[in-house]
């Protein structure tokens, strides 16, 4: 990976001629995103993210921290926060922003540490990549939880993006896919295009079933207006 999203984040943080990024998926056209959005403050965040931050407690792990907006808010509130991301540029930006415990790390490689709250926000199920990987990730996340700990994770049901026929049925092209929420993303920045990557959106019922199958309780905490939701997983 060229780490173009991370490059955009670092360019913004260092005022190095930052530009908007362009994202595209295999089921949607390209969209331009203002990189400033990733540096938003609590007051500018969607309700789902605000709710997750309000529920965070104890020692916190921010998975896929990006520019560190969630971590910074929690650190300012006095929490002990570890921020991880697979993007070296993003982690450099986080450190420049004052997040000392920021580390380039894949969640599956994090071991021998436990937390009271694990945050997976901005479509936290995305890191699973494909539906088949859900059990692998949930099993590993369980090893990172302290007794009484919680995982706060958000996602969206993408069923609304597909065509509905006269009988109310939904037409979903499933070529090379096991589930309609499996997307392939590409990111473009300053004329460069990064390698495509898999990104998973899970509807709540599917997440709940996977959670139960892996020994978690799963509560629906909040539903947004765009088929999005926040869930809490715990033992």
From TrEMBL:
User: Per the record, a Pfam family?
Assistant: Methyltransf_31
Q: Which Gene3D superfamilies match?
A: Vaccinia Virus protein VP39
Q: Name one GO biological process term.
A: methylation
Q: Does the keyword Methyltransferase apply?
A: yes
Keyword Cytoplasm in the entry? The reply is no
Please provide the record's keywords in A-Z order.
Methyltransferase, Transferase
Domain Methyltransferase, first and last residues per copy? 58-158
Sorted alphabetically, which CDD domains does this protein's record hold? Answer: AdoMet_MTases (cd02440)
Give the superkingdom in one word. Answer: Bacteria
A molecular function (GO) held by this record is: methyltransferase activity
Classification via InterPro entries: Methyltranfer_dom (IPR025714), SAM-dependent_MTases_sf (IPR029063)
Give the protein name, as stated in the record.
Methyltransferase domain-containing protein
Source organism of the structure: Myroides albus
């Amino acid at each position: 990976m060229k780490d173009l999203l991370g490059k955009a984040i670092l360019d913004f943080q260092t005022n190095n001629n930052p530009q908007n990024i362009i994202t595209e998926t295999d089921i949607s056209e390209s969209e331009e995103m203002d990189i400033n959005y990733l540096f938003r403050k609590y007051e500018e965040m969607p309700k789902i993210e605000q709710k997750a931050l309000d529920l965070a407690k104890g020692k916190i792990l921010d998975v896929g921290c990006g520019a560190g907006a969630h971590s910074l808010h929690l650190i300012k509130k006095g929490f002990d926060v570890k921020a991880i991301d697979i993007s070296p540029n993003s982690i450099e930006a986080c450190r420049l922003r004052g997040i000392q415990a920021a580390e380039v790390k894949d969640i599956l490689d994090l071991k021998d540490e436990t937390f009271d709250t694990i945050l997976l926000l901005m479509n936290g199920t995305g890191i699973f990549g494909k539906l088949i990987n859900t059990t692998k990730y949930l099993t590993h996340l369980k090893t990172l939880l302290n007794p009484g700990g919680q995982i706060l994770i958000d996602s969206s049901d993408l069923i609304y993006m597909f065509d509905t026929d006269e009988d109310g049925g939904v037409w979903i092209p499933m070529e090379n896919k096991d589930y309609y929420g499996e997307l392939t993303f590409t990111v473009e920045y300053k004329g460069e295009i990064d390698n495509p990557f898999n990104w998973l959106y899970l509807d709540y019922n599917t997440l709940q079933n996977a959670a139960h199958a892996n020994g978690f309780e799963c509560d629906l905490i909040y539903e947004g207006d765009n088929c999005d939701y926040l869930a809490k997983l715990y033992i």
